[in-house]
Amino acid sequence: MNEMIWLIIGPLLIAFSLLAINLYLKKIYNWIIISSSILTFILSCSLFRKVLIKPLAYSLGSWEMTKGINLVADPLAGILIVTVALLNLLIIIYSLAYIEKNISKYYTLLFVLTAALNGMILTGDLFNLFVCVEIVSIVSYALVAFRRNHKAYEASFKYIIIGTVGGFFVLLAIILTYHQTGTLNLAQLVVRSSDISKVVKSGIISLFLIGFGSKFALVPLHTWLPDAHPAAPASISALLSGIVIKGYLYAWLRTLLILSNPSEIIASNLNLILIYSGVITLLVGHFLAYQQQSLKRLLAYSSISQIGYIMIGIGTLTKQGMSGGIFHIINHALVKSALFLAAGIFSEKIKAKKIKSLVGIGYKTPLVALGFTIAAITLIGLPPFNIFISKWLIALAAIKAGFIIPAGAILLGSILALSYYLKVIKAIYTKKKENYKIININWRLKIPVITLTSLCLIIGLAPNILLPKLGQAVRYLLKSKEYYQILFTG
Amino acid sequence: MLAVQIVIAILFILGIYTILNRKNVIKIIMGINIMEASLILFLIQLSYKDGGTAPILDKEYELIVDPLPQALALTAIVIGASTTAVMLFLAIKLYKEYGTLDISEIRRLRG
Q1: Which of B5, B66, B86, B87 to mutate to test the interface with A (most CBs of A within 10 A)?
Q2: From CA B79, how far away is CA A260, in angstroms rounded?
Q3: Domain of residue B20, residue span
Q4: Which InterPro entries does the record cross-reference, listed alphabetically (chain A) (predicted)?
């Protein structure tokens, strides 16, 4: 059995059979969703283990590799697939207690999202990449509007306009690539991309940057994100912020390094654009987050700033910087999901949406508030946790590559993050009245938050369980030419 | 050929202009559709050959049209249609919530 194809078909099959199950087998509905997401997780882990030994390729319908539709998995894709599956599992556990209305629509959309994300990460040709990106986008628009109030509709409309225009830019870039090379297969593209003339290539690369940039909230194109994330249910904001924008980032990274290679990027000064757009993203995100009164909006702006760190890491184009950036993708997925899920508990169970109304919440819900605090400290970048290590790697790589200002911006960003997260933590542990009653919270809501925060601590204490694998992933990423030739010529 | 390419460029720019300049929600959606139409035209234009036929593997058919861009165009049309459906749904809901389709009015009402 091939895991790659089942990771796409499986969630898709479950998504649409859930509608029938909701009609006829309502009693075992919850068991089916839980067990199928556990199954997806196991599948993704087994794929990851195989991929670490040797990158895999799979051709649908046993066509020739150059003609058919291919799926490709390398260590980087494997790591992201595991992250998607883990977050999906935890968020489904959370949603069992959190979502009360329109249950069947919600889970159907969630499984379609997982399938499309897996497809986006594993796909081996550009056009399927576009199709999967658009499926992910359409499902996210629907999920942002899930609350069915005026704020959600407005946020979703804003998102759909920017997202669709971004999607068209991606499509235009793909059409131009096909026009220039006559192929959409990534392996053939790697070989033929040197035929494209310099001017056209830089045009294509910038179209990809604009298109995907508007989807992963690079700064001038970020305006949808601070509306869309708070308007969605907390579980969905966790998914959107944790893994959906990272999926787009991954897709962009793949296309960038397939169309060109590090030495070419440095020769054309594109790395400067990447690094300084990262710096601007980071500073704008942090400064706007500092002014926010609403907790979820603060977290959304903080997500934007984290994209900046990742861009700086990728922009250095060294092994250290890249692995730092990818490490940051995973760390941020874990931390930001924990924060959004905890904020969801605060806003649903205690009706605290503003930072001011969080006062004393640390005594009402001790465990969740502790989880939130640990996650916030992690995101600031204090030592025993995982984000510290990825930020450290990125900053070191930036200094080594001769970018002193970006490294300084990383430091400044951490100080700004400290200032606004401390504001929240202070509100949580302020005591106003003498006796607070502990509010009973469903264990399904608590478990994901605790698991995610403890994962942060574990990865922070023992980063060596992940870092060598990341080094392996980056090696394939930087030498994509050799890697794809190995895959397709055997 | 050049005339078609100019038309494509004009349509693309017209689409962006409409999205950026119009206040009406429906007109913004129309702008997006115009942009999409220009991209589909571009795909078809890429593979067009004068007197070309369907790609049937036979000796009589020598001048064939590249079928791949046409398949892509179909997929792009499907994606565009589903996105338009979601956008129109949101437009209806926005009209029901705010009683207007003017985007600046919608922002003002929300305060």
Answers
A1: B86
A2: 28
A3: 2-110
A4: CPA3_Na-H_Antiporter_D (IPR050586), NADH_UbQ_OxRdtase (IPR003918), ND/Mrp_TM (IPR001750)
